[in-house]
Amino acid sequence: MLKYAKFFWGQGMMDQLKEIFSRHSGQQSDLIPILQDIQAVLGYIPAEAMEETARFLNVPESAVYGVATFYAQFYLTRQGRHRVRVCRGTACHVRGSKRIMEAVRKKLGIKPGQTTQDYRFTLERVDCFGSCALGPVVVIDGKLYGRMTPQKACRLLERLQ
Which domains does the chain have, with CATH numbers? Predict the structure, then answer.
């Protein structure tokens, strides 16, 4: 097992995967917890990790890929150190979240769903945070900022650079 991972990752990553697998029984029901553990360690789920997970669980790689792409909680590409999420739900939209998204997009030079080349920021569009009374809302690294404006959002990003 893990014979192919060495080429892509090196010994450190292989050791991390072995450690993750050692906490699981190898049953197919372990798939989601294993993917969660991989993402907790690496920040995303690379293709090599999905291949090794399939080998460990003795399931087709397509089954692992199917689960990883079905759930929004999983990322298949490296994410930025800071995750910037702009709410585009109805209440936030009515209060100007489109302008906020545009300002953040220009500031970072990326579109929603992308990560800056230096891996500092990932920009996401979210349908609703359920904080409509505080709209428009931006969430950065899990912290919610309400009554946002394009200017306030850009100032928040500047503090992180």
Answer: 5-70 (1.10.10), 82-160 (3.40.30.10)
